[in-house]
């Protein structure tokens, strides 16, 4: 992505979004989409997190567990019946077929829960769906905000979280490409630099633009 003085690039914002405004915030792993979502939440947006929904669906009494057991067997569960998230992650990032099966199970459940949440938006309210896999799930909002950072920066961030560089690269490769994300973007946020600069741009540029359409 070509840099500019502002970290926010407006591509194609809709003019008529109906009652309330649904915004999807997405980006590759390590790009920093949560920074943008948190900034929007601090400004008054109502935020739903796809990762949080996924954790609820895969908790010990979660709705997704029976399907996951049927698809992957006891090898991805602990002896007490809880999902072994680390073991499942190892499996799906090493086996594309397993990844496809996991997506087939989880994406519809997550998006259904998210759509229920977004449908509750009041007139003039901005609802944000923090979703890592916007392209992969086919989910679309009135405004799609893509958060971007160069791959070396993303790898560095993931290593700081405890992943090996090899695992970080594998997870990046397993997701959509930057070009695929840009193809569905209404707004692109360059999050390669200082966090404070991004948060300020969200408050002074992105948020007012969203309010105009809410």
UniProtKB/TrEMBL annotation:
UniProt binding sites for ATP: 30-35
Keyword annotations: ATP-binding, Coenzyme A biosynthesis, Cytoplasm, Kinase, Nucleotide-binding, Transferase
Pathways per UniProt: Cofactor biosynthesis; coenzyme A biosynthesis; CoA from (R)-pantothenate: step 5/5
Catalytic activity as recorded in UniProt: 3'-dephospho-CoA + ATP = ADP + CoA + H(+)
A GO term for molecular function: dephospho-CoA kinase activity
Cellular localization per UniProt: Cytoplasm
GO biological process terms on file: coenzyme A biosynthetic process
Predominant cellular place of this UniProt entry's protein: cytoplasm
Keyword ATP-binding listed: yes
Assigned EC number: 2.7.1.24
Listed GO CC annotations: cytoplasm
Record CDD domains: DPCK (cd02022)
Superkingdom of source: Bacteria
Gene3D superfamilies in the record: P-loop containing nucleotide triphosphate hydrolases
Described purpose of this protein according to its UniProt entry: Catalyzes the phosphorylation of the 3'-hydroxyl group of dephosphocoenzyme A to form coenzyme A.
Cross-referenced HAMAP family: Dephospho_CoA_kinase (MF_00376)
PANTHER family, sorted: BIFUNCTIONAL COENZYME A SYNTHASE-RELATED, DEPHOSPHO-COA KINASE-RELATED
Family classification: Belongs to the CoaE family.
Protein name according to UniProt: Dephospho-CoA kinase
Native source species: Winkia neuii
